[in-house]
Each structure stands twice: as C-alpha cells, then as structure tokens.
Write a structure and sequence with these properties.
This protein is about 15% helix and about 35% strand. The protein has about 80 residues and is an alpha+beta fold.
C-alpha cells in the first residue's frame, strides 16, 4: 500500500537532482523520471512513502519572458575571476 506523501517543487533539473540526492540519503529510491516530474519511494512496513518532485522549468524550456531555450549546462563550470 502506498500513500502520497509529499509534493516538492524544483526550479530546474539540477535542483531536482539535488533534492533526489538528499532524499536518497534518507532511503528513498527513484521510481520514475519524466521531464517535468520525478517520483521517489521509500518502503516501510506500514506502507510506502512517496515523494513527487515537480520540475517547473526542465532543460530547454525558455526562461520566463525571453522565448529562447536555455543552453545546455557546461562542464566544468567556468572559473570565477
């Protein structure tokens, strides 16, 4: 038996990945990944806990008001002067 536990909002995919990493330390496992939503589950004896991470702006989605897609993330990040 699973219950809808929490719904968390993330601005970008990087933010969602950081949230998922923190939840993984608490025993959650990524169950499904879509461009706009990730689902994580933690099994328990009295029913599984589910956390849904809603991504408001997946990669490629234009920032509000610009109409241009975001460039892909560059790695390594540019060094600060």
């Amino acid at each position: 038996m699973a219950e809808e536990g929490r719904r968390v909002a993330a601005d970008t995919e990087i933010h969602a990945r950081a949230l998922a990493d923190n939840l993984a330390k608490q025993g959650y496992v990524v169950e499904s990944r879509r461009a706009d939503e990730w689902t994580l589950r933690r099994p328990r004896r009295r029913g599984d806990q589910i956390v849904t991470i809603a991504i408001s702006r997946p990669w490629g989605a234009p920032p509000p008001g610009t109409g241009r897609p975001l460039p892909p993330p560059a790695w390594p990040p540019p060094s600060a002067p």
